[in-house]
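Please, structure for the following, as tokens.
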Amino acid sequence: MSDAKINLVAADMGYGHQRAAYPLLDIALDNKIISINNYEGIPDWENNYWKKSLGSYEKISRLKKVPLIGALVFAVMDAFQKIDPFYPKRDLSEPTTQEKFFYRVVDKGLGKDLITKLNSTNLPFLTTFFVAAYFAEAQKYKGDIYCVICDTDASRSWANMDSDDTRVIYLLPSEKVRERFMMYGVKEKNLIVTGFPLPKENIGENKEILKSDLAVRLNLLDVRGTYFEKYSALIKNYLSETIASRPLTITYAVGGAGAQKEIGLTILKKLKDKIIAGTLAVNLVAGNRPEIKEYFEAGIKELNLDTNINVKVIFDADKIGYFGKFNKALRTTDILWTKPSELSFYCALGIPIIMSNPVGSQEDFNHEWLLNLGAGIDSYDPEHVDEWLPDLLESGRLARAAMDGFLNAETMGTYNIEKLFSK
């Protein structure tokens, strides 16, 4: 572990903000993520405020499945965090309703206790949650303030209220997001394109881990050699030849609110024969949610797959423990099936992403980004996965998606961010 270089700050809400922080633990004070909504000594009123906010979000996310009324309620909530179309390029510096709402709470003292505590450390403040950037500046944090953007595009709410005169330095996933923030009024000197922080244990300083894993993966995804026949020179330029000695592996991940968990059991049910035959393995990701773990385990038992070594549930009550287990599982994952959340960036690891339905405006943009990159494929009806998955494998489409993500998405975000603090 390296010496502490930053105060690493996130929000313990879902997985997105902490997943983005996890790869930066090596340069964090005490190798820990400080959660603004549940750190030791948090004032009661702030703790209650965040609990109420998180509870409301999760309730609305689950309510979305209820016909008519659920979709309407979710649409109203999503409107507050909507990302405007990129074109035409224009002035978008006017603060949003959502931003004004949060700033009223900041004016009442949100974050003041945490900033007072952290000011004694004399370290830069790096956060993966925009509200923490709001109050770090408003409550007069003494050091430099950095904010990592956690999606492929971002709403106006990610830029502080006084965007033209903010102290916050934004660490961005792409040049397009840099242009977006300039539309929000942020000065160019406050914008650094680093790439999204991905786990170093899946990459390696020279991408040696990533390349080794991808070489095995392509063997399993390109079942007829269709992709290799067309692009053998390209593949050989980046990867060494290898032989796969494990089954094709699908990892299905639900979101932090537990949305779309039913798809996981549908995958098992429809591909059960291949699992029993040993040609397919499935990881069901329950995260740190025990109720999702129990749901998956009950379904696995009902399908008589509870003793099958090719079916695993990835779970840890501690989120940091979960991220470690998840990243380890990704090394032998050939297809990642999930919503287009912050996991969209993981296509850079050379893992094709099958996308279930987006939930919210930011996921709509992530969905579009993956399609444009060629690294993501829209899920067909999960009830017919036993028919369409073999077709994708035989056509070489999944192999192409794996290489498109590897070649076209930024991989070295964590290393690039660490270099900022290496002086």
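The chain has a mean pLDDT of 92. The domain at 201-408 is CATH 3.40.50.2000 (Rossmann fold).
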